[in-house]
């Protein structure tokens, strides 16, 4: 919020006698301002309007040449202050509005002081104590996404004891410093894990115990989010370093388990969960892999996934792993087979899939890069499904007569459902948990899924994501033939 600009108006207009009655006037002042209102003893007094050269104006009460009483000060940039003024400044109940939002409460010398309410134009809000116009004291802040901080604020930030909760299901109670977990606290995550102990700058740091959802505990001394010493004081290896040592073996094991093609038409699949900071993508990819295996008799499968808890037991969703996996699928499958590739992650407006693995710096995967990685499968019938915001932007670089493409959204629209506690994105649930359980016709399944998504988005009052489809006839035919072979028809 912009600070209130104090205004002093001590302009002697006319030499009047003592105790002169209020006199209406319309006059231009020496600084170019125009005053329309009443005077007393040559000073602005009573009701009036003052227009400033820069386009700002004040409408309200004056006393002895100063803004004093109830009034509205309207600035040239569209911001305003409405409420009580004393001796030229905002003092008392008032409402300050500008391009960022509104501040309401009691003002002292132009700044909010004591109990007040802040609301931003994007939906964030704060209720609680203010000092010098900043959050200070007990308060409750909620951002535009529904995340909520409550506790002791200082100089505009949560400092000291408080709590945090968000719509993903994270819950925290304990100390804070500059909005982040700091000091002693208890953090509960939506995956069922909980950590009780010391934090520093939002990470486990110091003595603490992490309890996983299955009841497994890890206790000792933590350093920047990892267990450095166990409860007996023994130094612990860095899980990231161990995971990196194992990644080559994990991927090779997955490649080695791919069965060779047979004369029959076979289905080979790949799932790719790109963002490891939220569990929904891993859950969704695992569901899709299981569905394709159990309901569609997948012959060979490779699953790549990023996730904060699976550094050392699953091949990561990286460019190089994806390249090697695609080359392996090309080598193992035959020309009579069909490939099904599923990608799920966050997406960006410049058409990139987010690749996020905590403590690793991975660049996002662009639509053009994915097209290049798919070259070993050129001329091979394949289905590519992408569940991500703005995923329609992947169609143009990927499409050809051998590639059927489904995306969760238009090139210029977001998709929904990618929160930590969710089992599916909106599109992932609609297509795999609903539509493909009702029909094995890909085109009909897409149409049904699109209708389900549209209905859900309308109920939630979201802008329609408008899933997109590129469906070459030869891929649809190959899929139908495979479904007939599977059913024995």
UniProtKB/TrEMBL annotation:
UniProt cross-references to InterPro entries, sorted A to Z: Caspase-like_dom_sf, MORN, Pept_C14_p20, Peptidase_C13
Record protein name field: Peptidase C13
A molecular function GO annotation: cysteine-type endopeptidase activity
Domain Caspase family p20 positions: 318-389
One annotated Gene Ontology cellular component of this protein: cytosol
Keyword presence, Repeat: yes
Taxonomic lineage: Bacteria, Pseudomonadati, Pseudomonadota, Gammaproteobacteria, Pseudomonadales
SUPFAM superfamilies per record: Caspase-like, Histone H3 K4-specific methyltransferase SET7/9 N-terminal domain
Pfam families linked to this entry: MORN, Peptidase_C13
GO biological process: proteolysis
Residues forming coiled coils: none
Keywords: Repeat
PROSITE patterns: CASPASE_P20, PROKAR_LIPOPROTEIN
């Amino acid at each position: 919020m912009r600070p209130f600009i104090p205004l002093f108006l001590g302009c002697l207009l006319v030499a009047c006698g003592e105790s002169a009655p209020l006199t209406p006037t319309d006059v231009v002042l020496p600084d170019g301002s125009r005053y329309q209102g009443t005077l007393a003893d040559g000073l602005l007094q009573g009701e009036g309007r003052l227009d400033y050269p820069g386009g700002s104006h004040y409408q309200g009460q004056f006393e002895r040449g100063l803004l004093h009483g109830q009034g509205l000060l309207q600035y040239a940039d569209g911001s305003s202050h409405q409420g009580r003024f004393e001796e030229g400044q905002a003092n008392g109940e008032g409402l300050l509005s500008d391009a960022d939002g509104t501040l309401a409460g009691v003002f002292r010398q132009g700044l909010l002081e004591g109990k007040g309410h802040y609301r931003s134009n994007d939906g964030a809000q704060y209720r609680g104590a203010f000092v010098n116009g900043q959050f200070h004291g007990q308060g409750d802040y909620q951002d535009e996404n529904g995340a909520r901080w409550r506790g002791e604020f200082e100089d505009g930030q949560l400092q000291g004891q408080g709590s945090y909760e968000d719509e993903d299901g994270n819950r925290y109670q304990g100390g804070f410093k500059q909005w982040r977990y700091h000091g002693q606290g208890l953090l509960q995550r939506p995956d069922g894990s909980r950590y009780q102990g010391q934090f520093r700058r939002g990470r486990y740091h110091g003595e603490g115990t992490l309890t996983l959802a299955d009841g497994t505990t890890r206790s000792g001394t933590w350093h920047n989010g990892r267990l450095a010493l166990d409860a007996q004081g023994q130094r612990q290896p860095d899980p990231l370093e161990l995971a990196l040592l194992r990644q080559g073996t994990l991927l090779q094991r997955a490649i080695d388990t791919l069965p060779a093609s047979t004369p029959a038409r076979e289905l080979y699949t790949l799932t790719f969960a790109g963002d490891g900071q939220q569990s929904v993508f891993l859950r969704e990819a695992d569901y899709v892999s299981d569905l394709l295996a159990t309901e569609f008799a997948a012959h060979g499968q490779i699953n790549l996934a990023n996730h904060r808890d699976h550094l050392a037991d699953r091949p990561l969703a990286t460019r190089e792993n994806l390249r090697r996996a695609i080359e392996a699928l090309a080598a193992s499958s035959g020309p009579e087979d069909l490939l099904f590739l599923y990608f799920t992650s966050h997406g960006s407006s410049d058409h990139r899939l987010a690749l996020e693995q905590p403590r690793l710096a991975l660049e996002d995967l662009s639509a053009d890069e994915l097209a290049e990685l798919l070259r070993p499968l050129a001329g091979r019938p394949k289905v590519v499904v992408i569940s991500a915001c703005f995923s329609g932007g992947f169609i143009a670089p990927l499409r050809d007569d051998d590639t059927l493409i489904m995306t969760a959204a238009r090139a210029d629209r977001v998709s929904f459902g990618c929160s930590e506690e969710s089992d599916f994105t909106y599109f992932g649930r609609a297509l795999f948990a609903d539509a493909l359980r009702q029909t094995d016709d890909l085109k009909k399944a897409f149409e049904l899924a699109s209708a389900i998504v549209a209905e859900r988005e309308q109920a939630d009052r979201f802008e329609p994501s408008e899933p997109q489809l590129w469906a070459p006839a030869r891929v649809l035919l190959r899929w139908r033939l495979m479904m007939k072979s599977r059913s024995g028809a």
